[in-house]
Structure formats: structure tokens, C-alpha cells
Amino acid sequence: MIVAFSLTPSAADDDGGVHRAVAEAVRIVRASGLPNETNAMFTNIEGEWDEVMAVVKQAVDAVAAVSPRVGLVLKADIRPGHTGQLSAKVQRLERALGE
Fold it and tell me: What single Pfam family name could you report for this chain, choosing any that match (predicted)?
């Protein structure tokens, strides 16, 4: 499965940003060893249900440690028996664009 998720702490840094709290969550994702990527809006992570959801929970907990409230947006592509889709889906799209 691939999960795209975004965390938003309710409490901002002194400069109004949330990047420090979000960076802690991204560190957890990267340390998980699961395939992942981060863009301006979401972090994508691929793996089995239990391992992906455990990482998402750890990321939420990290943000909750510095903010009294955390918003979570999560979208999942659940396709049993398929792996390597984090990059394969994009490759299929790029091929289609070249047709």
C-alpha cells in the first residue's frame, strides 16, 4: 500500500512556521527504512498496512509532543500483491504522457 499523509501542528514556531515539528515527523518516516518521498504538501510511504500505519502513528506522536493538537490528512492506495508502486505509478504516467 501507498499512504500519502500530511501533519499539521496547531502550534506554530515563533516565526509562524510549522517546519520544525514537521521535520521531526519526516525524520521518523526516513528512519523507518520504508520507501518514501516528501514533497511540498505530503509525505508518501509504501509498505504493508501494519508497518505503514505504525510509522504514521509515530510521526503523529512526534508532532503531538510539541503541539497540543495535530491535524492529519491521509490518503491510501491499497493494492494487495503490488510493491514498488511509489515509483512505478509515476513511471507509467510518464510513459503515457510520451505516447
Answer: Thiamine_BP
Domain boundary assignment for the chain: 2-98
Q: What is the pTM of this model?
A: 0.88
Domain at 2-98: CATH code? 3.30.70.930
Burial 61-77 (b: 16+ CB within 10 A, else e): ebbbeebeebeeeeeee
Contact 5, 72 (CB under 8 A): yes
Compute the distance between CA of residue 53 and CA of residue 27 in angstroms, rounded to an integer: 16
How far is the CA of 36 from the CAs of 3, 39, 56, in angstroms?
9, 10, 12
Do residues 49 and 1 lie in contact, with contact meaning Cβ atoms separated by under 8 Å?
yes
Q: What's the pLDDT tens digit per position in 16-35?
A: 567 888 899 999 999 999 99
- Cβ(25)–Cβ(7) below 8 Å: yes
